[in-house]
From TrEMBL:
PANTHER family: ENDOGLUCANASE (PTHR37836:SF3), LMO1036 PROTEIN (PTHR37836). It holds the Pfam family Collagen_bind_2. Residues 34-370 form the Apiosidase-like catalytic domain. The keyword Hydrolase applies. Residues 373-464 form the Putative collagen-binding domain. Keywords: Hydrolase, Signal. PROSITE patterns: PROKAR_LIPOPROTEIN (PS51257). Residues 1-19 form the signal peptide. GO terms for molecular function: hydrolase activity. This is Glycoside hydrolase.
């Protein structure tokens, strides 16, 4: 065999191998971990900034028309991931009164022949899930699915054998849909039902190798505490939770950072193996601080912005927003709503924070992506604590510094390329820029955010190479 034939055959084999690999995935819509292990990319190598919304009870609470309204709204507001439970309770029923499983056994999904929405006997619980997943796909939205909410495992309603059969059912049913992400767990510590969570994770991975998997942990904990070494877990997730600094109940935990969600991201960022990390549940807009006492102050759009910019600038690959009314799809006819929702879900779709999240996504995507790193050395002098903290991130040719309350701060220039930099203020409330000027890229320079210093007068200082 001559040299040219050998080269031809090697090229052909390589092409076929690549083609086969691509065929098992979903082309440009595939989600992958970036080469540096910090971010997500689509199959064509483009950045994927996760902008999630928590719609936990979507499958159970909304009918087909309502689900379409919700998904279209989130698409228009720039969200690209919807976090939702498949089973909130075991057993459970949806808005059409279809049961999810047989006799409270997750290993026995309640299935009927056919899936005709006009035939109530043929259209079952899982057909409704399929419908919503497929509508989301039409709108370019990924569905981050929680197989079964954590309380069900904690209450011993799901054992290892049932979990394995159920995870096999889910993997086989959804492995060919491109817009699936798996959120194992569900507001629970990994140590509570560890054997079940590992069984679900391992079974999903074995039967569905082409979708990403993570673990949604309890408030003020991180999935990395239990699953950093787990081969089924592709990326880390924290839940920074809904309590104020003075309401913190996590002091007995390995990590206890209060509202400083950036500290959880910073902690994950140092771990090996390197995995992308994200705050998958910060304080929801319009939920009482501390959750259960509805007389407490409510978290606002300023708070959800703070959690977003803090975590992303600290190294997260995206951010998940939530609203008290939307996450539970609250309607005034509900007899026992949770956490005192005030607006119906259809109204709460247009809460200020929900409209503002797209500006964070646009800001990050406006700069080079995969070279971005957290870098607190950009902040010159002594940094503040809690709400006075300035969080900084940079790439080779840009730097971003976020202040929540608009207090003056100084920057150590020269951390990015270029002899000179162009400076501007970015407004997280409306996504608009205000030019500051051009400066030599060296030394320490003070910057003065617009407006009077106060919580919620947040700004991003943008420094770019000229």
């Amino acid at each position: 065999m001559n040299f040219k034939v050998k080269i031809y055959l090697l090229t052909l084999v390589s092409f076929l191998a690549f083609a086969c690999k691509q065929k098992t995935h979903f082309g440009d819509k595939t989600l992958l971990v970036s080469e540096n292990g910090r971010y997500l990319t689509t199959g064509d190598g483009k950045p994927f900034f996760w902008l999630g919304d928590t719609a936990w009870l979507l499958f159970g609470r909304l009918n087909r028309a309502e689900a379409n309204t919700y998904l279209e709204d989130r698409k228009q507001k720039g969200f690209n991931v919807i976090q939702v439970m498949l089973l909130h309770e075991v057993p459970s029923r949806n808005v059409y009164l279809d049961s999810s499983v047989v006799r409270a056994d997750v290993s026995k999904p309640m299935l009927t022949a056919g899936n005709n929405p006009k035939d109530s006997l043929a259209y079952d619980y899982w057909d409704h899930v399929d419908y919503i997943v497929d509508v989301a796909a039409e709108k370019g939205l990924y569905m981050a699915l929680v197989p079964v909410w954590g309380t069900n495992v904690k209450e011993k309603k799901v054992n290892k054998t049932q979990a394995k059969a159920y995870a096999e059912f889910l993997a086989k049913r959804y492995k060919d849909r491109w817009n699936i992400i798996w959120l194992n767990g569900g507001d629970i510590k990994g140590s509570e039902g560890m054997d079940v969570w590992n069984t679900i994770g391992e079974t999903l991975r074995a039967n569905d190798p082409n979708h990403l998997i993570t673990f949604h942990p309890r408030g003020r904990t991180a999935s990395s505490q239990w699953f950093q070494q787990a081969k089924w877990c592709d990326f880390d997730m924290i839940q920074s939770g809904h309590r104020r600094y003075d309401q913190d109940t996590s002091k007995k935990e390995k990590l206890h950072f209060g509202e400083d969600n950036w500290r959880y991201i910073e902690s994950d960022y140092k771990l090996k193996p390197t995995k992308p990390t994200i705050d998958g549940e910060p304080s929801y807009e319009d939920i009482p601080q501390g959750l259960h006492d509805t007389t407490q102050p409510r978290w606002t759009d300023a708070d959800v912005r703070r959690y977003g910019y803090w975590s992303v600038f600290a190294g997260a690959f995206g951010y998940t927003y939530g609203h008290n009314s939307v996450m539970q799809m609250y309607k005034k006819t509900d007899l026992k709503p949770a956490y005192g929702p005030r607006d119906q879900w259809i109204t709460a779709l247009n809460a200020p924070g929900a409209k503002q999240m797209q500006f964070l996504k646009k800001l990050i995507l406006s700069q080079s992506y995969f070279d971005r790193v957290p870098d607190q050395t950009l902040v010159a002098g002594k940094n503040g604590e809690k709400y006075d903290r300035v969080i900084a991130t940079r790439g080779e040719e840009f730097a971003l510094l976020y202040t929540y309350n608009g207090k003056n701060f100084s920057v150590q220039l020269g951390k990015t390329d270029g002899d000179d930099v162009k400076a501007s203020w970015f407004n997280p409330r409306d996504g608009k820029y205000t030019a500051i000027g051009e400066f030599e890229n060296k030394g320490i320079k003070a910057f003065y955010p617009p407006g009077e210093p106060q919580n919620g007068n947040d700004w991003v200082l943008v420094l770019e190479k000229i």
